[in-house]
Design goal:
This protein is α/β, with parallel strands linked by helices. Strands 3-2-1-4-5-6 form a six-stranded parallel β-sheet, with helices on both faces. Helix 8 links the parallel strand 2 and strand 3. It is elongated.
Length: about 240
């Protein structure tokens, strides 16, 4: 991004903040947490755990499959003796251990959360992930306390192709969509929030790099890391 473009983006962020922002909603995987690699590499990690080596391109093959479909593929292609439900269970244990023990925050997350908390912005999480695992990862990283509530697609009854999870989170935060920031890394989720009237902050994640140009066009703001927009933000804009 050119300096002039970035300066204009910063000024627009300042105007937006001064005029209306009261709350913020954060996606978890790929936005708060650098957790997408475990999903991208899960086939290889599973095979490694049972002493097998994955063939090249396995991640791309499994990318569009459900857990059950992926387990069936692994059973057939690698001649596994375990049944599909057992494979799914083993895979989920690897994923759970990653969230509980390893999943780190994305760069700039804690700085952004602290900045917003200091300005009395209420915050919530809206995730398509598992509540228990997301809570465990956020708590281990010391940021769970920033959020008033975690909303999940499973509990709200709709995926992120529907705005329900964002609308319920905004209602909890007592803010209108136009008063609320939504931080997302995935295009389909950002598009849903945008259409529902939210101000959308796109955050780069390598798992969504194929939609980079579409995200930049769609989002109100787009950054390679979450806290870049804070660097030149004036302290005088602090909420009272």
């Amino acid at each position: 991004m050119k300096d002039s473009e970035r300066n204009e983006e910063v000024r627009e962020t300042q105007r937006m903040w001064d005029e209306k922002i009261k709350a913020a909603i954060f996606d978890a995987d790929g936005t708060l947490l650098d957790s997408m690699p475990v999903w991208n590499d899960i086939g290889e990690l599973y095979l490694k755990s049972i002493g097998l080596t994955a063939r090249e391109g396995l991640g791309e093959t499994l990318h569009t499959m459900s857990l059950e479909q992926g387990a069936a593929y692994l059973k057939k292609e690698y001649r596994l003796e375990k049944q599909i439900p057992e494979i799914v269970g083993d895979v989920l244990k690897i994923v759970a251990d990653f969230y509980r023990l390893e999943a780190p925050l994305k760069p700039g997350v804690k700085e952004t959360l602290e900045w917003l908390k200091h300005r009395q912005v209420k915050m919530a999480v809206a995730t398509s992930g598992n509540r228990e695992l997301i809570e465990a990862a956020l708590e281990r990283n010391g940021v769970l306390g920033y959020f008033g509530k975690i909303f999940t697609c499973t509990e709200t009854g709709a995926g992120k192709d529907d705005p329900l999870i964002y609308l319920e989170a905004a209602q909890f935060l007592e803010s209108r969509p136009d008063e609320t920031l939504v931080f997302e890394d995935a295009f389909h989720a950002a598009e849903t929030a945008k259409k529902a009237g939210f101000t959308v902050f796109g955050v780069y994640d390598d798992s969504n790099r194929e939609n980079l140009s579409r995200m930049k066009e769609l989002c109100d703001f787009y950054f390679d890391r979450m806290d870049i927009w804070l660097e030149d933000f004036p302290e005088k804009s602090e909420k009272k």
